[in-house]
UniProtKB/TrEMBL annotation:
This is ATP-dependent helicase Lhr and Lhr-like helicase. Residues 33-212 form the Helicase ATP-binding domain. Its EC number is 3.6.4.-. It holds the Pfam family DEAD. The keyword ATP-binding applies. Residues 229-384 form the Helicase C-terminal domain. SUPFAM superfamilies: P-loop containing nucleoside triphosphate hydrolases (SSF52540). The gene is lhr. GO terms for molecular function: ATP binding; ATP hydrolysis activity; DNA binding; helicase activity. Keywords: ATP-binding, Helicase, Hydrolase, Nucleotide-binding. It comes from Phormidesmis priestleyi Ana. InterPro entries: ATP-dep_Helicase (IPR052511), DEAD/DEAH_box_helicase_dom (IPR011545), Helicase_ATP-bd (IPR014001), Helicase_C-like (IPR001650), P-loop_NTPase (IPR027417).
Length: 724
């Protein structure tokens, strides 16, 4: 078979050899180049640092070299600005070495540079979904000139966008841009970890008529260094982590900003340079952390998911994880930050505060060992983004008919199960509530929408996610430490309150609400701020079932230390034996009964358990609390007979299809605010959003009838938990 390299223009071949010193392409680059040069859309899968960027950029640039576009020929889209900045030099080299240009467009780029770009567009435009929206909504941007000859788009870290409101937003914006060009825009998605790439491909293709393919070459197994350590105090975790990190470069991932701040403070003064990296730390601090870490040899960045994506912070020795991430995908992304050098193993050490996160970490490792990773659940009724796009279209065109909006939006997969009558209901509601205004059959933005979303020249409309009101935290000398959300600031008392930010403790000297600033001074000790929200974090069915499988197994886990094994053995003797006994029964339900109380250990995940909660509450005056692993049921009539009768009832599809059941469930749902555009929806559609986040009726029915396709509680799988 002809090599893909030989299909590149000679100028590109020579540049790859002379400028990069390459003598061959990697398998993923060969396969991808053939697919893209053949004109296909593609989702390209490869591990972090596996060559995905070149696998997409080389063949896409090759197609632009001999027939340069009039305007932007190729979009490179990343989920975050930091990744754009990180890739700017690299992609600048690739375009420069073949005589093309690239331009970086986001909020931090100077207006004068953007003006020059619009006057003389570059071939490659690097940007984010939100910045693309800014361009479409700006009357100063010549849309037809820039996008009239657009040929292709590369979406990096596509798994971070698919299945989310931001992903729906991106696809919507791409379809709006596609109307400016006669070209069938070639679409390419890059990812290291996704469980259903074919579905992501279908979602990404949108209205493109090109053939599509998934490029997923066989991955050579490589040994990993994985450890799970249960340490019951943060002080013990910090002490052990600092000993391991001494003289090396490490990332320490945490699941919350407050935990990152707490661990960073405890790591300081233990012989390692410690930096903090999360969304409330100032941009200057984050940039300084990345730069100093890149150049250092004895440094650790304590971070949240802000460093999970493929941002290059130089050669990395170790990855630490406080407790456990909620997905196997996140674990793989973080694990992949190491093991990039020759003779270096990818590694992760979990430091867990309790047995529950330790079990979660073990379960994720065991699932990954089988090759499993989550599938991304795609949405076909994305109500908040539909509201967002309606408002964006009125702003883009000044006034637009409802029919034209429907025509543009109905082609998008994420809205495909919203019917025309439902769309009309939404329009009528937004008109009635003042979010839209109609004149002469055309829709314009209403007064209420302008009041809610029109601040700072409609900044709130550029992004589908909510930007919290932030207060800038500064020292007496004017140094910006970071920012705090208003809900936290409202609880601060001058000269008394203290908090952690940037890994240091600060005492509040003065709060200025008019200009949203907080002046602080260093404090000897700090209280950790409460960053959390009230919306529950839901674990998936497979991870929870795997935790149950670990509890029911007998074999020792090879990558945990003796202290953790002792705690695991105790959990197996207690809850593990309970699960084993329940499995021997016909129905296999593990329910503990006490006086007027029952605990049902399902290990079915948050969505299934919350679905079961509302089903069991129907027709009963029971108080039920659900989490990822169990349901606590309390009430005067709680007992085996009443619960078995209820289980028999909710096990049928007829029960869930009943209008009275539907009405009851909707009336009981909590009023979670999942999107800033939720306020513009009719109550029924707003509740549907909460229902889709919290509940999964088909999965609950499969669980109740023991037909779930991912059921992992069979004895064969339990016996497979053995030494590597």
């Amino acid at each position: 078979m002809t090599s893909a390299f030989s299909r590149f223009p000679v100028r590109l071949q020579e540049a790859i050899v002379s400028r990069l010193g390459w003598t061959s392409l990697r398998p993923v680059q060969e396969l991808s180049s053939h697919a893209l040069l053949d004109g296909k859309n593609a989702v390209i899968l490869a591990p972090t640092a596996g060559g995905k960027t070149e696998a997409s950029m080389f063949p896409m640039l090759a197609q632009l070299m001999d027939n340069e576009p009039a305007g932007v020929g190729l979009l490179y889209i990343a989920p975050i600005k930091a990744l754009l900045n990180n890739q700017a030099e690299r992609l600048g080299l690739y375009t420069d070495m073949v005589g093309l240009r690239r331009f970086l467009w986001h909020g931090d780029v100077k207006a004068s540079d953007k003006k020059a770009f619009m006057k003389e567009p570059a071939t490659l435009l690097m940007t984010t979904p939100e910045s693309l929206e800014v361009m479409l909504l700006s009357s100063k941007v010549p849309h037809a000139k820039l996008f009239g000859d657009l040929r292709g788009v590369v979406i990096d870290e596509i798994h971070a966008l698919a299945g989310s409101d931001r992903g729906t937003h991106l696809i919507s914006v791409l379809e709006r841009i596609a109307r400016y060009t006669p070209n069938d825009i070639q679409r390419v998605g890059l990812s290291a970890t996704v469980g259903n790439p074919e579905a992501i491909l279908h979602w990404m293709q949108g209205t493109s008529k090109r053939e599509g393919c998934v490029v997923d070459p066989p991955k050579k197994p490589s040994p990993k260094d994985l450890k799970v350590h249960l340490r019951e105090t943060l002080g013990a975790i910090a002490q052990e982590a600092s000993q391991k990190a001494a003289g090396q470069k490490s990332l320490f991932f945490c699941e919350s900003r407050s935990l990152a701040e707490d661990i960073a403070e405890r790591l300081r003064n233990r012989g390692t340079d410690v930096f903090v990296h999360h969304s409330s730390v100032s941009l200057e601090e984050r940039n300084a952390a990345e730069a100093r870490f890149y150049q250092g040899e004895n440094a650790s960045i304590v971070c949240t998911s802000t460093l999970e994506l493929g941002i290059d912070v130089g050669d990395l020795d170790l990855v630490f994880q406080a407790n456990a991430p909620s997905t196997a995908s996140s674990f793989l992304q973080r694990l992949g930050r190491t093991g990039r050098r020759a003779q270096q193993r990818a590694n992760t050490t979990f430091f867990c505060e309790d047995i529950e996160p330790a079990l979660q970490a073990i379960a994720i490792v065991e699932l990954v060992r089988t090759g499993w990773v989550e599938s991304i659940k795609l949405n076909t009724r994305a109500w908040p983004v539909l509201v967002h796009q309606l408002l964006a279209l009125t702003l883009q065109f000044g006034a637009i008919s409802a029919e034209r909006c429907w025509q543009q939006l109905t082609v998008i997969t994420d809205f495909s199960n919203i019917t025309a009558p439902e769309f009309d209901t939404l329009i009528a509601h937004m008109l009635r509530e003042g979010f839209l205004y109609e004149s002469g059959g055309l829709l314009s933005m209403g007064d209420k929408a302008e009041k809610v979303f029109g601040r700072k020249n409609f900044m709130e409309l550029y992004a589908v996610f909510s930007s919290p009101v932030l207060y800038k935290v500064t020292t007496k000398a004017g140094y910006v430490v970071g920012s705090l959300e208003q809900a936290f600031v409202d609880k601060l008392v001058e000269e008394i309150s203290s908090f952690l930010l940037g890994g240091r403790a600060w005492v509040v000297k003065h709060v200025n609400h008019s200009d949203r600033t907080i002046r602080v001074e260093p404090a000897p000790r700090g209280k950790k701020p409460n960053w959390g929200g009230f919306v529950p974090q839901l674990l998936g069915y497979e991870i929870c079932q795997q935790i149950a499988a670990v509890l029911k197994a007998d074999a020792a886990i090879p990558y945990i230390d003796p202290q953790t094994q002792v705690r695991l053995d105790a959990a197996r003797d207690d809850l593990g034996n309970l699960l084993k006994k329940a499995q021997e029964k016909a129905q296999g339900q593990c329910i503990q009964y006490e006086a007027d109380r029952a605990i049902w250990w399902t290990f079915a995940g948050g969505q299934i358990n919350h679905t079961l909660k509302y089903g069991l509450q129907y027709g009963h005056d029971w108080k039920i609390v659900a989490d990822n692993f169990r349901l606590k049921i309390e009430g005067d009539s709680v007992g085996p007979n009443t619960i078995n009768l209820s289980l028999k009832e909710i096990r049928t599809q007829r029960f869930w299809d009943s209008p009275t059941t539907e009405s009851f469930v909707l009336s009981e749902l909590p009023e979670y605010r999942l999107s800033k555009f939720q306020q513009a929806l009719p109550d029924l559609f707003s509740l549907e959003m909460v229902k889709n986040y919290l509940l999964d009726v088909p999965a609950a029915l499969s669980f109740l009838n023991n037909t779930h396709p991912s059921n992992r509680l069979d004895q064969q799988h339990i016996n497979n938990i053995k030494r590597s």
